[in-house]
Design brief:
The chain is mostly helical and 165 residues long. The protein has 5 helices and 2 strands; from the N terminus they run E-E-H-H-H-H-H. Strand 1 and strand 2 form a beta hairpin. The chain is globular and about 50 Å long.
């Protein structure tokens, strides 16, 4: 790849096989088009976790885990608002839509948490610390916020350096 500025001064990525069509390189006339970079979108992380619905092996990057958790939280809040608008004010219980959604994403939630623990070099059994009131949740959040174990570990390749699919 080679980066060449366009008329606006932005660098565009061109394949190395591109050749100049004019002798004057200041004209930047190339015989091929720039490579279109794949746009990242926030829901990609959520969809990626759902694709690996019950995959408990391997590793998940910190971004993948936290984006799934944040989107999951937003979806739960929206469904809860929708439930309360349809059924009236519910003080102590979630509505049917929220309950169905939470049940549907329970397994992906557990799977991405286990893969995230694998990414920090820990066993998935560390999830059991959530059974300890207050302290377990605090320790779990600290583990989830930690950086990845550098390079490959016994759970697989480093997710930071795998190619996007």
């Amino acid at each position: 790849m080679m980066n060449i500025p366009d008329a606006g001064g932005r660098d565009l990525a061109y394949p190395a096989s591109c050749r100049y069509t004019s002798r004057d390189r200041s004209l930047y006339q190339l015989s091929c088009a720039p490579v279109q970079k794949k746009k990242e979108y926030v829901m990609r992380w959520y969809v990626e976790v759902l694709r690996q619905y019950a995959v408990f092996r391997g590793r998940s990057a910190r971004t993948e885990y936290w984006m799934f958790i944040i989107i999951n939280l937003v979806m739960t809040l929206l469904l809860d608002l929708f439930d309360s608008a349809l059924l009236g004010d519910m003080v102590y219980a979630s509505g049917p839509l929220t309950s169905i959604y939470m049940l549907a994403v329970l397994l992906p939630n557990l799977a991405v948490a286990v893969r995230r623990l694998h990414d920090t070099g820990r066993s998935g059994w560390y999830l059991l610390m959530l059974l300890i009131p207050f302290v377990g949740l605090l320790l779990f959040l600290i583990l989830m916020a930690q950086d990845s174990h550098p390079g490959d570990n016994r759970y697989g390749a480093d997710p930071k350096h795998r190619t996007a699919g």
